[in-house]
Q: What sequence folds into this?
């Protein structure tokens, strides 16, 4: 490689490296400054997935009750006092041990129920008298948080009772499925207390029955405002999002929680940075090779051809054939094409002498 070619390579490659360094530095600063916002956006999406999962249990409960009512199954059982068909139907339609059901008579008393049913404090008479169904999230004493559907049981146009179908949200299987989908720790709070969670204690037990921090409780439970930021979860720093849970009366009865361990976030950022650095190094290597090829093809080879022609003239070899090199249509090519004419002129003068 010629000295000029080496200098050009050094200058161009140096410029490329500096540019890539500036771009990489800007990218890293951008990632650092926006990492919190990116994490909060991801947590918001995770909570939306959480809410959709809970709502699916409400919808599933409603479909069971509405189907029974549409075929008169619940009304016939309540009127005849024979719930064997209801028990058979429930055995095939209940999906988890946390599903529950009850059928109430016209006075609001339980006529039939599953063993795990817990009657919450509500006025069934309103359902029976109004004929309106209610669905949503409910709080209770023995079952602090559940997804439920309540509707009237009708016979010949008259409401003769009510049906309740629901899902106790203390089950952890649906939370584990959410964790697999989102990679986040998730918790559902009944009031300020963890009712079901994927967060575990040091001994492997689930951290249920523990309360959220007081500042979070004031923001989320007392004021109904979503909390975003960082918090200590069992002594470990997390990026967290708490969103209020509203019941069918639009009262705050708990909170959805999603969070990422700060250490996991930092590990992810280190991975992103490492990947960016590797990509930058590979880019520099590829550009270096491309630049070397370009410099050799369009600069070094033409320079070598011109140098050869000039050397021949300096040595007085005017009868040497013209260079076979295919010069480009640029300044160097124009200069090289003029040399043979000079070669002819010098040769003519030398011949006359």
A:
């Amino acid at each position: 490689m010629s000295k000029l070619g080496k200098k050009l390579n050094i200058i161009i490659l140096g410029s490329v490296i500096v540019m890539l360094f500036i771009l990489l530095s800007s990218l890293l600063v951008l990632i650092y400054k926006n990492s919190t916002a990116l994490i909060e956006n991801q947590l918001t999406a995770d909570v939306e997935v959480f809410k959709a999962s809970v709502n699916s249990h409400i919808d599933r409960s409603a479909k069971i009750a509405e189907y029974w009512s549409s075929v008169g199954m619940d009304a016939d059982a309540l009127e005849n006092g024979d719930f064997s068909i209801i028990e058979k139907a429930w055995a095939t339609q209940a999906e988890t041990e946390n599903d529950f059901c009850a059928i109430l008579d016209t006075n609001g008393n339980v006529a039939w129920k599953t063993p795990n049913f817990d009657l919450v404090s509500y006025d069934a008479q309103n359902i029976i008298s109004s004929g309106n169904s209610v669905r949503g999230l409910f709080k209770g004493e023995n079952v602090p948080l559940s997804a439920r559907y309540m509707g009237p049981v009708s016979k010949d146009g008259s409401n003769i009772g009510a049906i309740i179908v629901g899902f106790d949200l203390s089950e952890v299987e649906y939370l584990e499925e959410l964790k697999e989908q989102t990679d986040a720790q998730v918790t559902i709070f009944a009031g300020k207390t963890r009712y079901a969670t994927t967060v575990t204690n040091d001994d492997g037990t689930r951290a249920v029955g523990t309360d959220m921090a007081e500042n979070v409780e004031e923001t989320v439970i007392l004021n109904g405002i979503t909390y975003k930021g960082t918090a200590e979860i069992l002594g470990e720093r997390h990026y967290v999002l708490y969103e209020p849970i509203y019941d069918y009366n639009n009262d705050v009865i708990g909170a959805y929680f999603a969070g990422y361990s700060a250490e996991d976030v930092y590990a992810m950022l280190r991975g992103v940075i490492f990947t960016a650095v590797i990509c930058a190094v590979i880019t520099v290597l590829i550009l270096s090779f491309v630049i070397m090829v370009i410099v050799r093809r369009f600069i070094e080879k033409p320079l070598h051809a011109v140098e050869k022609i000039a050397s021949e003239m300096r040595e007085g070899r005017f009868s040497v054939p013209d260079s076979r090199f295919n010069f480009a249509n640029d300044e160097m090519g124009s200069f090289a094409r003029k040399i043979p004419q000079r070669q002819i002129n010098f040769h003519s003068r030398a011949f006359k002498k």
In short: The chain has a mean pLDDT of 81. The chain is about 55% helix and 20% strand. The first helix runs from residue 3 to 70.
